[in-house]
Design goal:
Blueprint (H helix, E strand, L loop, with lengths): L2 E5 L2 H9 L4 E5 L2 H8 L10 E5 L8 E13 L11 E10 L1
Parallel strand pairs: 1-3
Antiparallel strand pairs: 2-5, 3-4, 4-5
Length: 95
């Protein structure tokens, strides 16, 4: 299965780990547009998202099935009050 690897700040990592935060956001930039859209018109070429807290080899990590990837407004409490549209990665079952 194709896995999306993302690094998170501790605050967001902990909120996702506790089950409080059910989606992750990424700014609409060429990097993520290429990852999520590629040459297809549909979003979500990934099946799993793996979150890491830090870049070291032994950084804590967790993985989830991805329910969907869409474009929309971020929830203020889960995004430091981000304004404008973002990619929304809706999390499914924790693996």
């Amino acid at each position: 299965m194709k896995t999306l690897n993302l690094v998170l700040k501790k605050k967001w990592f902990d909120m996702i780990a506790s089950g409080e935060k059910k989606e992750e956001y990424r700014e609409i930039k060429p990097l993520y547009a290429k990852k999520f859209l590629g040459h297809n018109t549909m979003l979500n070429p990934f099946f799993i998202v793996r979150f890491r807290h830090g870049y070291s080899a032994d950084a804590p990590s967790m993985s989830f099935l991805i329910d969907s990837i869409s474009v929309g407004a971020a929830k203020p409490e889960w995004s430091d009050n981000w304004k404008g549209n973002v990619f929304i990665i809706k999390l499914g079952t924790r693996l």
